[in-house]
Amino acid sequence: MCSEDCRPLGFLLGLPFAILSFFLSLIGVVVWIIATLLICICPCCICVAVIVSFALELIKAPLHVMRWFTKQIPC
Question: What pLDDT is stored for residue 2 in this prediction?
């Protein structure tokens, strides 16, 4: 009866975790800004590039959490 995109139970179960990961993504934004400034100041810091990629994954965390929860719950 339900299409592949219609999974409201997975959405509702994942919502508290998505809110928590949203706050982690805010931390990721702050880390990303600081690391980007450090790369602009000293481009020879290769390790800062790893921190930037980690911060970008933190920013994408709410999307990953919601996709995972909606895929786990059958329609």
Answer: 52
Consecutive 10-residue averages of pLDDT for the chain (75 residues): 62 79 86 85 76 84 80 71
Q: Which residues of 49-69 are buried (b: 16+ CB within 10 A; e: fewer)?
A: eebbeebeebbebbeebbeeb
For the chain, the domains span 9-72
pTM over 0.85: no
* Contact (Cβ atoms closer than 8 angstroms) between residue 21 and residue 66: no
